[in-house]
Design a protein that fits this description.
Layout: H1 13-16, E1 22-24, E2 36-41, E3 50-52, E4 56-57, E5 70-71, E6 84-90, E7 99-109, E8 114-120, E9 125-132, E10 140-145, H2 146-149, E11 151-152, E12 166-173, E13 183-194, E14 208-213, H3 220-223, E15 226-227, E16 229-231, E17 243-245, E18 247-248, E19 255-266, E20 271-280, E21 285-291, E22 296-302, E23 311-316, H4 317-320, E24 322-323, E25 337-345, E26 354-364
Parallel strand pairs: 1-9
Antiparallel strand pairs: 2-13, 3-6, 4-5, 6-12, 7-10, 7-13, 8-9, 8-12, 9-11, 14-26, 15-19, 16-17, 17-26, 18-19, 19-25, 20-23, 20-26, 21-22, 21-25, 22-24
Length: about 375
């Protein structure tokens, strides 16, 4: 999976004949929340499903509330390929979308170019973009359109497409003999996809993704611990591949989906939740998260929800959630750690309740980024 062309090396005639494989770092943070986020890593704790190509960095990192760790570079030089390399390997191979992008924060020292590439398990090939115009010597942001700009390493024209499975992300900078002057760090990697047929989301782009669950690949017990069923063939129409289905609660009070967050993750300045749901037999969901720092749950009741149709909803835990013990004036502070996320449903009398959830994104919206949640209230 090594890169064929590294920043600073010669570009062959075949590569020079097309713009694919090259881009200038002009786009920073997107304006809108993506239609799908299919891989993300904030480096706030190692997880069983992501490998890191570099050491944790706790000194030189982007400074904002709740952020404590970034990622450094692997050994220098990186083999005979580049001065430095860093990246991630999201396992078990998340599925890409229709128009695929990469957003990340980065700190590059030694130059203004780097090559970003990732591998398709479906195609058994890498695609890459050699990016010029990167900021040097300061934490910055970049967003890359891989569907539009990337070039496959085998030279074929077809871009990676909807449903293909991703593997390694690797970012290379400099020639091997320049390793002494190069350094590269990254933070808050977000792979996302938009559907050109859909209108943009109204929610702003996330500041940091804290936890992500899409359920599409891998055995449940290893990659998706918690209380729920993963379904594919029996999922409601218009589902994306696999989804989580609620199971009966042990106390008999309806059904739940419980997602285990391991290791516990620090929340942000404005902690929000975005997910898709398909609901039948009720019009309410209680979204709840366990705040391990204060040893109590925080919950928001969502009312008036759309039945029998996949719908996306946003929940503002920082603003709207209430502690289950009723404690007043207890802020959900940046850095508090969470380790369980719940969705509870109870049937309307005389009906059978069903709940499916998908595309679960717990994230920090950052300072002053908020939109109203549907009818929050305390648990009765």
């Amino acid at each position: 999976m090594l890169l064929a062309i590294v920043c600073g090396s010669n570009v062959g005639a075949a590569e020079a004949s097309t713009n694919r494989g090259f881009a200038r770092a002009e786009a920073a943070r997107p304006a809108h929340f993506p239609h799908r986020i299919w891989a993300a890593c904030d480096f706030e704790g190692p997880t069983p499903d992501y490998a890191w190509f570099g050491p944790a960095e706790t000194n030189n990192l982007p400074r904002y509330p709740g952020n404590a760790t970034a990622l450094g570079s692997s050994e220098r030089p990186h083999k005979n390929v580049s001065a430095v390399m860093t990246g991630i390997n999201p396992v078990p191979g998340p599925r890409m979308g229709k128009e695929n992008f990469l957003y990340t924060r980065y700190l590059l020292q030694g130059g203004t170019e780097a090559t970003f590439q990732y591998f398709s398990l479906t195609r058994e090939d890498n695609q890459h973009i050699r990016v010029s115009g990167l900021a040097e010597g300061k934490w910055s942001e970049v967003t890359l359109n891989f569907t539009r700009d990337a070039r496959r390493n085998d030279g074929r024209a077809e871009p990676f497409g909807d449903g293909e499975r991703m593997d390694d992300l690797k970012i290379f900078a400099g020639r091997p003999n320049e390793a002494a002057r190069y350094n590269l760090r990254i933070d808050d990697v977000i792979f996302f996809a938009n559907d050109p047929r859909l209108t943009p989301e109204r929610e702003p782009f996330p500041n940091r993704v804290i936890f992500l669950a899409a359920f599409d690949m891998g055995p449940k017990e290893k990659y998706w611990p918690g209380d729920f069923e993963i379904v594919e063939k029996d999922a409601p129409a218009n589902a994306y591949w696999r989804v989580a289905r609620a199971v009966p609660r042990k106390d008999g009070r309806g059904k739940l989906v419980r997602l285990q967050i391991e290791p516990p993750r620090p929340v942000g300045e404005q902690t929000k939740l975005r997910f898709r749901y398909y609901l039948d037999g009720t019009s309410e969901i209680i979204a709840q998260i366990f705040d391990a720092t204060v040893q109590d749950n925080r919950h928001v009741r969502l009312r008036g929800l759309t039945p029998r149709e996949w719908t996306t909803v946003y929940v503002d835990f920082t603003r709207d959630a209430r502690r289950n013990d009723g404690t007043a004036n207890s802020p959900f502070s940046a850095g508090n750690k969470v380790d369980d996320l719940f969705f509870f449903v109870s049937p309307t009398p005389g009906k059978k309740v069903e709940l499916f959830v998908d595309e679960v994104v717990l994230y920090d919206a950052g300072a002053g980024k908020s939109s109203r949640s549907p009818h929050p209230s305390k648990i009765n």
